[in-house]
Design goal:
Helices cover about 0% and strands about 55% of the residues. The protein is an all-beta fold. A hairpin with a 5-residue loop joins strand 9 and strand 10.
Length: about 120
Amino acid sequence: VQLQASGGGLVQAGGSLKLSCAVSGTTFKINAGGWYRQAPGKERELVASIGAGNITTYADSVKGRFTISRDNAKNAVYLEMNSLKPEDTAVYYCYTNQYGPAGTSWGRGTQVTVSS
């Protein structure tokens, strides 16, 4: 199973980005997925997750600004980020937990930089 994260970049404060996490190498669908981020000198933190029944959770710092979603047909997870702040600057990592034997897989990070 391979995860390809994309959509990061440089944006001004107040701007928006949409991250995508595409799953390949398996026919099993996503059971759950999410996004972590890690800023320089800080621990990795869970930003958002989506589980069975599309139940979502968010870090308090992103509630009301970020939206996680999934596309079962495309076997992908997305993170729409609005009203971005400089403190959102980090490398964002996606993960998915597939039905079937593969378990949890991680994608390579995508850099998000928010300038003030």
